[in-house]
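Recall that a protein's primary structure is simply its ordered list of amino acids. Everything else, from secondary elements to tertiary packing, is in principle encoded there. The following example makes that idea concrete.
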Amino acid sequence: MRDEAGWLVPLRRDDDPERWRELVAADGPVVTRVAPDPALSGEMCDPETGKGMVSTSSSSAPFIMARLIEAMELEQGMRVLEIGTGTGYNAAVLARLTGAENVVSIEMDPVVAASAREALETAGLAVTVVTGDGETGHPSRAPYDRVIATASAHTVPYEWVRQVRTGGLIVVPLAATVHPDWPLAVLKVKDDGTADGRCAGPSPFMPLRAQGVSASSVQDAERRWEAAGRPEATRVGVTVEPQGQRVWLDSPDIAW
Protein backbone atom coordinates (compact mmCIF):
# COMPACT_ATOMS: atom_id res chain seq x y z
CA MET A 1 0.00 0.00 0.00
CA ARG A 2 1.09 3.61 -0.46
CA ASP A 3 1.78 5.77 2.54
CA GLU A 4 1.17 9.51 2.79
CA ALA A 5 4.44 10.21 1.03
CA GLY A 6 3.49 7.94 -1.87
CA TRP A 7 5.96 5.17 -1.07
CA LEU A 8 4.96 1.53 -1.47
CA VAL A 9 5.13 0.20 2.07
CA PRO A 10 4.47 -3.44 3.01
CA LEU A 11 1.21 -4.35 4.74
CA ARG A 12 1.35 -7.87 6.12
CA ARG A 13 -1.81 -9.70 7.10
CA ASP A 14 -0.44 -10.57 10.54
CA ASP A 15 0.36 -6.92 11.26
CA ASP A 16 -3.09 -5.49 10.54
CA PRO A 17 -5.62 -8.19 9.51
CA GLU A 18 -8.56 -5.80 9.25
CA ARG A 19 -6.81 -3.24 7.05
CA TRP A 20 -5.26 -6.03 4.96
CA ARG A 21 -8.69 -7.60 4.37
CA GLU A 22 -10.20 -4.22 3.52
CA LEU A 23 -7.64 -3.52 0.80
CA VAL A 24 -7.76 -7.03 -0.66
CA ALA A 25 -11.57 -6.91 -0.87
CA ALA A 26 -11.65 -3.43 -2.44
CA ASP A 27 -12.38 -2.94 -6.14
CA GLY A 28 -8.88 -1.66 -6.83
CA PRO A 29 -5.42 -2.98 -7.68
CA VAL A 30 -3.22 -4.53 -5.00
CA VAL A 31 0.56 -4.41 -5.34
CA THR A 32 1.96 -7.82 -4.41
CA ARG A 33 5.66 -7.58 -5.27
CA VAL A 34 8.13 -4.71 -5.49
CA ALA A 35 11.74 -4.12 -6.50
CA PRO A 36 14.16 -1.21 -6.32
CA ASP A 37 13.61 1.42 -8.98
CA PRO A 38 16.36 0.75 -11.55
CA ALA A 39 16.62 4.49 -12.16
CA LEU A 40 17.83 5.03 -8.57
CA SER A 41 21.01 4.02 -6.82
CA GLY A 42 20.80 1.10 -4.40
CA GLU A 43 21.33 3.18 -1.27
CA MET A 44 18.26 5.27 -2.11
CA CYS A 45 15.94 2.22 -2.00
CA ASP A 46 14.57 0.56 1.14
CA PRO A 47 11.98 -2.26 0.91
CA GLU A 48 10.92 -1.83 4.56
CA THR A 49 9.97 1.83 4.21
CA GLY A 50 9.02 1.56 0.53
CA LYS A 51 11.38 4.36 -0.41
CA GLY A 52 12.53 4.01 -4.01
CA MET A 53 10.55 0.81 -4.62
CA VAL A 54 8.39 0.17 -7.68
CA SER A 55 5.71 -2.42 -8.35
CA THR A 56 6.73 -5.49 -10.36
CA SER A 57 3.59 -7.57 -9.81
CA SER A 58 0.06 -6.79 -8.73
CA SER A 59 -3.48 -8.09 -8.58
CA SER A 60 -5.56 -5.96 -10.92
CA ALA A 61 -8.79 -4.28 -9.89
CA PRO A 62 -11.64 -6.82 -10.07
CA PHE A 63 -13.72 -4.62 -12.38
CA ILE A 64 -10.83 -4.52 -14.86
CA MET A 65 -10.44 -8.31 -14.67
CA ALA A 66 -14.17 -8.65 -15.32
CA ARG A 67 -13.88 -6.40 -18.39
CA LEU A 68 -11.20 -8.64 -19.90
CA ILE A 69 -13.01 -11.87 -19.09
CA GLU A 70 -16.26 -10.58 -20.56
CA ALA A 71 -14.42 -9.65 -23.77
CA MET A 72 -13.12 -13.23 -24.06
CA GLU A 73 -16.62 -14.64 -24.71
CA LEU A 74 -15.69 -17.84 -22.91
CA GLU A 75 -17.46 -21.17 -23.08
CA GLN A 76 -16.94 -24.29 -21.00
CA GLY A 77 -14.14 -26.43 -22.42
CA MET A 78 -12.29 -23.64 -24.22
CA ARG A 79 -8.52 -23.84 -24.08
CA VAL A 80 -7.03 -20.65 -22.63
CA LEU A 81 -3.50 -19.28 -22.40
CA GLU A 82 -3.07 -16.54 -19.81
CA ILE A 83 -0.04 -14.25 -20.04
CA GLY A 84 0.90 -13.07 -16.55
CA THR A 85 -0.22 -15.29 -13.69
CA GLY A 86 0.32 -12.83 -10.84
CA THR A 87 -1.45 -14.05 -7.72
CA GLY A 88 -3.36 -16.70 -9.69
CA TYR A 89 -6.73 -15.04 -8.97
CA ASN A 90 -7.61 -14.47 -12.63
CA ALA A 91 -6.44 -17.98 -13.55
CA ALA A 92 -8.78 -19.33 -10.87
CA VAL A 93 -11.71 -17.46 -12.40
CA LEU A 94 -10.80 -18.77 -15.86
CA ALA A 95 -10.58 -22.29 -14.42
CA ARG A 96 -14.10 -22.04 -13.00
CA LEU A 97 -15.44 -20.84 -16.35
CA THR A 98 -13.70 -23.21 -18.76
CA GLY A 99 -12.33 -26.06 -16.61
CA ALA A 100 -8.97 -25.96 -14.82
CA GLU A 101 -7.48 -28.60 -17.11
CA ASN A 102 -7.99 -26.19 -20.04
CA VAL A 103 -6.05 -23.25 -18.55
CA VAL A 104 -2.34 -22.60 -18.97
CA SER A 105 -0.90 -19.54 -17.25
CA ILE A 106 2.63 -18.28 -17.81
CA GLU A 107 4.57 -16.06 -15.40
CA MET A 108 8.10 -14.70 -15.83
CA ASP A 109 8.92 -14.18 -12.14
CA PRO A 110 9.70 -17.62 -10.61
CA VAL A 111 8.80 -16.48 -7.09
CA VAL A 112 5.42 -15.16 -8.24
CA ALA A 113 4.81 -18.30 -10.31
CA ALA A 114 5.56 -20.59 -7.37
CA SER A 115 3.24 -18.65 -5.07
CA ALA A 116 0.40 -18.71 -7.60
CA ARG A 117 0.92 -22.41 -8.28
CA GLU A 118 0.64 -23.16 -4.56
CA ALA A 119 -2.47 -20.98 -4.16
CA LEU A 120 -4.21 -22.66 -7.09
CA GLU A 121 -3.33 -26.13 -5.78
CA THR A 122 -4.69 -25.17 -2.36
CA ALA A 123 -7.93 -24.11 -4.04
CA GLY A 124 -8.11 -27.49 -5.77
CA LEU A 125 -7.64 -26.02 -9.25
CA ALA A 126 -5.27 -27.96 -11.49
CA VAL A 127 -4.22 -24.98 -13.63
CA THR A 128 -0.89 -25.43 -15.41
CA VAL A 129 1.39 -22.62 -14.24
CA VAL A 130 4.51 -22.24 -16.37
CA THR A 131 7.54 -20.14 -15.45
CA GLY A 132 8.73 -18.41 -18.60
CA ASP A 133 8.52 -15.48 -20.99
CA GLY A 134 4.89 -14.79 -21.81
CA GLU A 135 5.76 -13.18 -25.13
CA THR A 136 6.73 -16.60 -26.50
CA GLY A 137 3.51 -18.21 -25.31
CA HIS A 138 3.42 -21.94 -24.57
CA PRO A 139 3.36 -23.77 -27.91
CA SER A 140 3.35 -27.30 -26.48
CA ARG A 141 -0.31 -26.89 -25.45
CA ALA A 142 -1.44 -24.98 -28.55
CA PRO A 143 -3.73 -24.38 -30.28
CA TYR A 144 -5.72 -22.26 -27.85
CA ASP A 145 -9.21 -20.85 -28.23
CA ARG A 146 -8.30 -17.72 -26.30
CA VAL A 147 -5.20 -15.81 -25.23
CA ILE A 148 -5.56 -13.22 -22.47
CA ALA A 149 -2.77 -10.90 -21.39
CA THR A 150 -2.86 -9.40 -17.90
CA ALA A 151 -0.08 -6.97 -18.80
CA SER A 152 -0.09 -4.23 -21.41
CA ALA A 153 1.75 -4.43 -24.72
CA HIS A 154 2.78 -1.78 -27.20
CA THR A 155 3.39 -4.56 -29.75
CA VAL A 156 1.32 -7.77 -29.81
CA PRO A 157 3.70 -10.74 -30.19
CA TYR A 158 3.05 -12.76 -33.33
CA GLU A 159 3.71 -15.95 -31.36
CA TRP A 160 0.33 -15.44 -29.71
CA VAL A 161 -1.36 -15.37 -33.11
CA ARG A 162 0.51 -18.48 -34.18
CA GLN A 163 -0.74 -20.38 -31.13
CA VAL A 164 -4.47 -19.53 -31.48
CA ARG A 165 -6.85 -21.47 -33.70
CA THR A 166 -8.64 -19.77 -36.58
CA GLY A 167 -11.59 -17.84 -35.16
CA GLY A 168 -10.02 -17.65 -31.70
CA LEU A 169 -9.52 -14.41 -29.79
CA ILE A 170 -6.56 -12.56 -28.32
CA VAL A 171 -7.55 -10.12 -25.57
CA VAL A 172 -4.73 -7.74 -24.69
CA PRO A 173 -4.51 -4.33 -22.99
CA LEU A 174 -2.54 -1.90 -25.13
CA ALA A 175 0.00 0.62 -23.92
CA ALA A 176 -0.59 4.36 -24.00
CA THR A 177 1.73 4.50 -27.03
CA VAL A 178 -1.23 3.17 -29.05
CA HIS A 179 -3.94 5.39 -27.52
CA PRO A 180 -3.97 7.58 -24.36
CA ASP A 181 -6.84 5.56 -22.86
CA TRP A 182 -4.73 2.40 -22.50
CA PRO A 183 -7.45 0.55 -24.46
CA LEU A 184 -8.29 -3.12 -24.53
CA ALA A 185 -7.79 -4.79 -27.92
CA VAL A 186 -9.87 -7.80 -28.94
CA LEU A 187 -8.28 -9.49 -31.95
CA LYS A 188 -9.71 -12.37 -33.96
CA VAL A 189 -7.33 -14.82 -35.61
CA LYS A 190 -8.06 -15.38 -39.31
CA ASP A 191 -7.31 -18.31 -41.59
CA ASP A 192 -4.56 -16.35 -43.35
CA GLY A 193 -2.44 -16.38 -40.19
CA THR A 194 -3.15 -12.78 -39.18
CA ALA A 195 -5.23 -11.30 -36.36
CA ASP A 196 -7.09 -8.03 -36.22
CA GLY A 197 -9.73 -6.20 -34.27
CA ARG A 198 -10.75 -2.96 -32.65
CA CYS A 199 -10.12 -1.46 -29.26
CA ALA A 200 -12.63 -1.18 -26.44
CA GLY A 201 -12.69 0.75 -23.17
CA PRO A 202 -9.75 1.66 -20.94
CA SER A 203 -7.86 -1.22 -19.33
CA PRO A 204 -4.65 0.10 -17.77
CA PHE A 205 -2.15 -2.60 -16.82
CA MET A 206 1.50 -2.84 -15.90
CA PRO A 207 3.55 -3.54 -19.06
CA LEU A 208 4.99 -6.84 -20.15
CA ARG A 209 8.48 -7.08 -18.69
CA ALA A 210 10.21 -6.35 -22.02
CA GLN A 211 7.66 -3.79 -23.22
CA GLY A 212 8.05 -0.85 -20.90
CA VAL A 213 7.35 2.52 -22.48
CA SER A 214 9.22 5.78 -22.08
CA ALA A 215 7.62 9.08 -21.20
CA SER A 216 8.75 10.51 -24.53
CA SER A 217 7.07 7.72 -26.52
CA VAL A 218 3.80 8.31 -24.65
CA GLN A 219 4.06 12.04 -25.35
CA ASP A 220 4.68 11.34 -29.05
CA ALA A 221 1.60 9.12 -29.15
CA GLU A 222 -0.50 11.78 -27.46
CA ARG A 223 0.63 14.37 -30.02
CA ARG A 224 -0.34 11.98 -32.83
CA TRP A 225 -3.72 11.49 -31.17
CA GLU A 226 -4.22 15.26 -30.86
CA ALA A 227 -3.31 15.75 -34.54
CA ALA A 228 -5.87 13.11 -35.54
CA GLY A 229 -8.63 15.00 -33.73
CA ARG A 230 -8.61 13.02 -30.48
CA PRO A 231 -10.38 9.92 -31.84
CA GLU A 232 -12.14 7.60 -29.40
CA ALA A 233 -10.32 4.36 -28.64
CA THR A 234 -13.13 2.38 -30.31
CA ARG A 235 -12.06 3.86 -33.67
CA VAL A 236 -8.58 2.42 -33.31
CA GLY A 237 -7.74 -1.07 -34.52
CA VAL A 238 -4.73 -3.36 -34.69
CA THR A 239 -3.62 -5.93 -37.26
CA VAL A 240 -0.89 -8.41 -36.32
CA GLU A 241 0.96 -10.16 -39.15
CA PRO A 242 4.14 -12.26 -39.36
CA GLN A 243 6.04 -9.17 -40.48
CA GLY A 244 4.79 -6.98 -37.65
CA GLN A 245 1.92 -4.92 -36.28
CA ARG A 246 -0.16 -2.19 -37.92
CA VAL A 247 -2.29 0.29 -35.99
CA TRP A 248 -5.17 1.81 -37.94
CA LEU A 249 -8.02 4.28 -37.59
CA ASP A 250 -11.58 3.33 -38.60
CA SER A 251 -10.41 0.86 -41.26
CA PRO A 252 -7.42 -1.46 -41.71
CA ASP A 253 -6.72 0.52 -44.89
CA ILE A 254 -6.12 3.75 -42.96
CA ALA A 255 -2.79 3.68 -41.14
CA TRP A 256 -2.50 5.70 -37.95
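The helical segments are 17-25, 62-72, 89-98, 110-122, 158-162, 215-227. The CA atoms of residues 57 and 230 lie 32 Å apart.
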